Amino acid sequence: MDAEVLVVGAGPVGSALTLMLRALGVRTMLVDRATFPRDKACGEGLMPGGVRLLAEVGVDLAGLGFPRIDGVRYRLPHRGWVSAAFSGPAFGVRRVRFDAVLAELAGAEGPTAVSTISPRRDSVVVETDRGRLRCATLVAADGMRSPIRRAMGWEQDGPACDRYGMVGHLEAPRHGRSEIEVTLLEGVETYLAPAGPDELLVAVLGARSRLHAEGTTTKELYRRLVDDAHPELAAARLNGGLRGAGPFGIRARRVAGARVFLCGDAAGFIDPLTGEAMSSGIEQADFLARQLARDPHGAAPAYARYFAAQWRRRRLMTGLARAMTGSPRAAQRALRGISRHPQTLERMLQIADGSRGLSALRPADGAALAGW
């Protein structure tokens, strides 16, 4: 065997999984087809659950200089806002640096592109452009468009929703922001997060029809929507180009079997609005690492059950967030209700982050979201 576990994909989830497995004494190899540093469209917010798990394997995000995020604010321009603090520190993690730091810590080998995989009774044989690899277990952490998910025949028929995102970074010297800020416009949302002491990430999320305008370039439309949400950033210079992502709403038919596992966005991606995808992927990595170290033969059914429960939680919380932001009228009702019952938003954030279970929801929370 070249490794007990071969992890394909050295993004945050694959690198975290590799660090976790090695900490548990499992001989693990990590490969990626990319050369780091490389950028990626992302909300770039790592929630408290993911922060805690990375700290357990020695990754100190504060020490590495990533900006802290203390909470989230939802706002309707000129019509009010609500906010809540996270259960612990979160961080803005600029992907071009964050991924490179984690990949280096995890010892990623690359660029290595996987061409075919052949699960066998006692191993998985993987053909790459750098030669053949043989492992006892293969974990695909190769992203939302996972080639390994496709090779295993675990693709779903199509995306579950017509939602896309445009992501850019704006110069904002000494901006002093420490919150994620979600601004609700007509048919779209903007998502702002600190990416550094002098830089802000601003993403625009919405249906494809809302992110296209005849006779207008993508960059012009992005700036117009960002200026509508944040007129104070109208003069801010765009650092680099825009990146796009979508459609969202991807879920694999299976996440485990035949000595192959899917982890992170390869297993499923709902919507970036709640900003919990990276943290949820790192939670999956933690569960899978412990299962593979303790009982590799029983890991597949245990992981499938865990993923199904986590997916139900994520889908429900994303559904509540989308219902709250679905229209200005719904948003105004939700903001009015949450302003009367601020603990509702606090509970939602804690459940979305995995700090609390779904049982923490109260009937009054639904009433608050409805504006009562």
Question: How would you describe what is shown here?
Answer:
This protein is α+β, with helices and mostly antiparallel strands and 372 residues long. It has helices spanning 12-23, 48-56, 95-106, 147-151, 218-229, 277-294, 299-325, 328-340, 343-353, 363-369; strands at 3-8, 28-31, 45-46, 68-76, 80-92, 114-119, 124-128, 131-140, 163-171, 179-184, 188-196, 199-207, 238-245, 250-251, 256-257, 260-262, 268-269. The strands form three sheets. The chain has an eight-stranded mixed sheet, with helices on both faces. Strands 1, 2, 6, 7, 8, 15 and 16 form a seven-stranded mixed sheet that branches. The chain has a two-stranded antiparallel ribbon with strand order 14-17. α1 (12-23) runs parallel beside α3, α6 runs antiparallel to α7 and α8 packs across α10 (363-369). The radius of gyration is 20 Å and the shape is globular.
